[in-house]
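Bench notes, afternoon.
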Amino acid sequence: MTRRIAGTALAFLVLLLATGTVQLRGQAVASAQISGLVADPSGAAVPSAKLTATQTETGLVRTTLSGPDGTYVLPGLPVGPYKLDVQASGFETYVQTGIHLEVSNNVTINRELLLVKRAEKRRKRENTSSVSRRVMVKARGLSLNIEEST
């Protein structure tokens, strides 16, 4: 009788362990990470930059700060499409979309942030339209050229 109880207990224990192992495998989540370096235009590290990874399909958000050397790591991200926002005081906010993480994929994104003044100048250059007009007037042998630019 004792042998029978011991055999049943052993069979139950083996069954319990086998079931537990299957559940643990089922609970594993495929993940990846985004890491890199945040620097200023001179190449110097930008510490304490706020980096936010947003999974665009689910809205999952993970945030971290760059270290004193400008490096950052966002580990354990579920696979899928992401966008990365980088913000630091005195710098233009950087946004990168189209990041696609796959199982065990470690993506490196190094970013040079633009100073706010440089970013404003660049935007002004891009938004400034150049208009020029050339008018030529001839009157009795005199030629008058007028160029206007705004």
